[in-house]
Amino acid sequence: MNAAATDNAKPSRAPRLLTVARTARLTPNMVRITFAGQELDGFPADREGANCKIMLPASGQSREDFAAQLDGAGPKPITRTYTVRHFRNNPAELDIDFVVHGDQGPASRWAKHAMPGDFCGFAGPGPVKVTHFEADWYLLAADMSALPVAAATLEAMPRDAKGIALFEVMSEADRQQLTAPRGIETHWLVQSDPHVPSEAQERFIRSLDWPAGRVQTCIAGESGVIRSLRAFLHQEKALPRTDTYISGYWKIGLIEDEHQKVKRAEG
């Protein structure tokens, strides 16, 4: 990067310190945390489906100490990637949906026990994943980690869109009522233990009568599943990469920091 580019680079915004306004159990394994307050001033509109970073305080940590940590005093907090589910103005409120699976992971543990007045750090949001809808047919597929980005994409689609939405959840009770165009067929698969490799999504997608015309995708989830689906879509179906959002959000056996290193190494 040359000096002129450096001088014109836009500085990154410091992490926000968000406050929990309320929580809602959407399904047995998913909870919605709603944040509110002046910390959301200036939050960009129309970012539903975009990635964001949630920074977690230590157990018993004071708000003041955590705020100092976000400002650089001390080690970087534990950070996990999530999806902007909804943002509303007047009053400003931000919804983030968390998969909860006991106290094993730090983000699941924090979300499971979160109460009004609790706090966390927030960085982002990034860009929306699917920004144009120009296809004859759409394919969406997600496990519970990626259900928020797929749901946001469904809501943003033209109301005359046609296609398939495929969701893999941990139980029948984890089905959600989603807002989708009438021409989108929604299917639910149950995989009770997400840490056991699953081929159910790939089998379902391979069994489809592939439509004629232009196809766009929004697919995300466990990296092993994503790797197989990416090969199917790009190599066997020859879909252009510009029409296929497909991303590994996590990997069985790895925490997020380890998974991100693997993704960077794979390019």
Task: Please explain how this structure is put together.
The chain is α/β, with parallel strands linked by helices and about 270 residues long. The chain has two domains: about 10-125, Elongation Factor Tu (Ef-tu), domain 3, CATH 2.40.30; about 135-265, 3-Layer(aba) Sandwich (Rossmann fold). It contains seven helices and eleven strands. The strands form two sheets. A six-stranded antiparallel β-barrel has the order 1-2-5-4-3-6. A five-stranded parallel β-sheet has the order 9-8-7-10-11, with helices on both faces. The protein is globular, with a radius of gyration of 19 Å. Mean pLDDT is about 90; it is low at about 1-10.
Key features of this structure:
267 residues, alpha/beta, Elongation Factor Tu (Ef-tu), domain 3, Rossmann fold, six-stranded antiparallel beta barrel, five-stranded parallel β-sheet
Q: What value does the Rg take, in angstroms?
A: 19 Å
Measured between the Cα atoms of the first and last residue, the distance is 20 Å
User: Quick one: how many beta strands?
Assistant: 11
Number of domains: 2
H/E order of the elements? HEEEHEEHEEHEEHEHEH
Q: State the fourth-level CATH superfamily of the largest domain.
A: Nucleotide-binding domain of ferredoxin-NADP reductase (FNR) module
- Major sheet summary line: 6 strands, antiparallel, barrel
**CATH topology category name of the largest domain:** Rossmann fold
Q: Share of helix among residues?
A: 10-25%
Low-confidence stretches: 1-11
For this structure, what is the CATH class of the largest domain? Alpha Beta
Can you list the strand order of the major beta sheet? 1-2-5-4-3-6
